[in-house]
Design brief:
The chain is an alpha+beta fold. The strands form four sheets. It has a 15-stranded mixed β-sheet, sandwiched between helices. Strands 16-31-30-29-20-17-18-19 form an eight-stranded mixed β-sheet. A five-stranded parallel β-sheet has the order 21-22-23-24-25. The longest helix is centred in the middle third of the chain and has 23 residues, at 215-237. The N and C termini lie far apart (83 Å).
């Protein structure tokens, strides 16, 4: 008995020592001010690492488990990841290295390669701790640079330090800029032991558990660095037009007439169009000149559905010819700060019109702090948005149906538009009849006819139901025609964002959808790999590929039916800034809308919806000089809309190629 007790004690002591040697780090994910998920990383003294990561975003979100074997330098020699991705599709990925031989396999790739020297494998699917492994490897690497597998090079540099206070202690944390992975450097916070402390953005933050109160401290300090970098970019890339500018030799397209007039000179001054004349107009004293080189000139484009983020978004929008956007949901203070910086010339970006999101509380609430449960809260939310410069209310999926007409009435009394997702347990017809002016996303129109199949549209069912049954909706049937007539009679605007669904419905592992096909090769290699992997699509069961394709085609067809029926459409992307808008236009053309009408929709048509058509959307004397110069003619070939060479935003002129290069994107050719 004594021997057995001694053995048991020894075993318990051994287990205790193993547990003591394990280092556990837990971080929480904050999404729009609410706790949405967490990561737990367990480091063993045997070179093993186990990570669990998950978060919930309106019923979407990944749930992943990753295991690693690390060498003496902290580089992975073997990894395995399992779980589900953001759209709940199952994923598995493995990687191994033995000497110079590396191999990896996932849903899109199965490769072997010889790699000499230190290199870091960048998983196609990742948990956040992957970034920490890369960061620590970079800090040890010569010149803080390291080759990436399969391609590319990462780098790191320290930017700042701050002291933060947690629930039980205070410490100093350091801000680093991690380059080579995205369009602009990523920011990450480390503690003094080079362990993960936080990654911050105005939308979402992951931070070490117990230090949630430090988000404001690190956020303020990081934003100082971001503003400093933005101001440097603005100074280098903006040509401020301090004198009148004569743009010679352009082909002018004015959307109302639909005509293209050759050999013209356009004079602008103080942000306005002064006159349009023959190309050979005499030089004017005190007037600068700009050679239009025979390019196509048209008003700047509008994207009516964005979620603007400071940084690369502003450069991508202007480089793509987008001079005005409508932000359809954001954090009030951060968006206000972005607008102020852009308008003051401290940052680069388009004009931004604000729409404020309102949602209901619950597990599927949208990314906002503005959650209402009763009439009093709903009225207060509308007033808050009005007082903070918003022109529109966007109702989201978890709003109680009985609150929707209350919100609409209050917004209309404040002179605001009302739009949104159709709330769960409500049809699109009811949404319109209760006061909506506009509907976001074409799938919401399809769900109007699928109420018997799904009523709770807060979840990804609002996508999967349309994917499974959308092909069977007869767009010429009496119920559909009657509903479309209602939209026309009520002057309802539709923001279809049809491009958003293209890759969602058509992509599958290893087979990307066509949405990014025209621009993939212009991105950094890390982005190209993600796009070409086909990740991000809805999970398909066996035999559903053609069904999903037919359902998606019917969504495109619906856009054409709406247009021909006299329903007003506005173009929105709800996708990558600037560069995905041309694909939206191409899909409208595919739906049967003539290119000239697509360009009208994207300029004067959008300006009319937002009651700005007396100042924007035309090339005519007195209008704001938001202008773009294009190689080619998008009234004939819509693909030419990607070939923007010059963007003029009032009294600021930008070279599109330079803007793209500043965010690691190759210019269009």
């Amino acid at each position: 008995m004594k021997t057995a007790i001694s053995l048991l004690a020894a075993l318990l002591a051994a287990v205790g020592s193993v547990q003591a040697a394990e280092h556990v780090e837990k971080s929480v994910m904050i999404l729009a001010g609410a706790n949405a998920g967490y990561q737990e990383a367990r480091y063993g003294d045997d070179g093993k690492l186990a990570v669990h990561f998950e978060f919930n975003d309106r019923g979407r979100g990944p749930k992943l488990d990753a295991t690693y074997t690390l060498d003496a330098n902290g580089l992975p020699t073997a990894t395995e990841l399992k779980g589900v991705d953001y759209l709940k599709a199952p994923i598995t990925e493995t990687y191994s290295r033995n000497g110079d031989a590396v191999a990896w396999k996932n849903g899109a790739e199965d490769e072997k390669r010889t790699v000499a020297g230190p290199a870091f494998f960048l998983g196609l699917n990742q948990v956040p701790e992957d970034a920490m492994l890369l960061v620590r490897a970079l800090l040890k690497a010569p010149h803080n640079k390291l080759e990436l597998i399969p391609s590319g090079e990462a780098s790191i540099r320290k930017l700042a330090s701050v002291e933060v206070k947690g629930k039980d202690s205070a410490q100093t944390v350091d801000l680093y800029a991690l380059g080579g992975l995205g369009l602009l450097p990523d920011f990450i916070w480390l503690d003094q032991n080079q362990r993960f402390f936080a990654s911050y953005s105005s939308w979402s933050t992951m931070i070490r558990a117990g230090y949630e109160e430090a988000i404001t401290t690190i956020g303020d300090r990081q934003e100082q660095e971001e503003k400093r970098l933005a101001e440097t970019r603005a100074n280098e890339l903006t040509r401020k037009l301090s004198a009148p500018l004569l743009i010679r030799n352009v082909r002018v397209f004015d959307p109302p007439s639909g005509e293209v007039v050759d050999a013209r000179s356009v004079l602008i001054d103080a942000g306005k169009i002064v006159s349009i004349g023959d190309a050979d107009v005499a030089s004017l004293a005190g007037v600068e000149e700009f050679d239009g080189a025979g390019r196509f000139m048209m008003p700047g484009l509008w994207d009516m559905h964005v979620h603007f983020t400071a940084g690369a978004d502003g450069l991508l929008e202007l480089a793509s010819g987008v001079t005005t956007v409508r932000d359809m949901a954001n954090q009030v203070d951060s968006l206000k700060a972005s607008i102020e910086s852009i308008e003051a010339g401290r940052d680069i970006g388009p004009r931004i019109i604000r729409a404020g999101i309102i949602d209901g509380k619950g597990p599927f609430a949208g990314p906002t702090k503005v959650l209402v449960e009763n009439e009093q809260e709903a009225l207060a939310a509308v007033k808050m948005y009005k007082d903070t410069g918003h022109e529109q209310i966007k109702i989201y999926s978890s709003v109680k149906p009985e609150l929707m007409p209350i919100i609409a009435k209050a917004a209309h009394e404040q002179g605001m538009r009302v739009s949104g997702h159709v709330p769960a347990y409500m049809t699109a017809r009811q949404f319109v009849e209760n006061g909506a002016d506009e509907i976001q996303h074409v799938n919401m129109l399809f769900l109007n006819f699928m109420f018997d199949k799904v009523q709770d549209t807060r979840t990804p069912a609002r996508f999967t139901t349309v994917a499974e049954y959308g092909a069977g909706l007869d767009l010429s049937s009496p119920p559909v025609r009657e509903f479309i007539q209602l939209l026309k009679d009520r002057n309802i605007v539709i923001d279809p964002t049809v491009g958003t669904f293209e890759d969602m419905f058509l992509s599958r592992p290893g087979v990307p959808g066509p949405g990014f096909a025209a621009i993939t090769d212009r991105f950094p290699t890390t982005w190209q790999r993600q796009i070409k992997s086909g990740s991000g699509g809805l999970e398909m069961k066996a035999g559903q590929q053609s069904l999903f394709r037919d359902s998606y085609q019917n969504m495109v067809n619906m856009v054409g039916v709406l247009f021909r029926s006299g329903v007003r459409i506005v173009p929105g992307t709800d996708n990558l800034a600037g560069m995905t808008l041309p694909r939206e236009f191409e899909l409208y053309v595919e739906a049967g809308i003539p290119p000239v009408d697509v360009l009208r929709i994207a300029t004067i048509g959008s300006a009319e919806v937002m009651k700005r058509d007396n100042d924007y959307g035309r090339i005519a004397p007195g209008y704001v000089s938001d202008l773009i110069l294009i190689d080619g003619d998008p009234t004939i070939n819509m693909a030419d809309i990607r070939k923007v060479r010059t963007t003029i935003r009032g009294d600021r002129l930008y070279d599109a190629d330079a803007l793209f290069k500043a965010v690691s994107v190759k210019p269009a050719r």
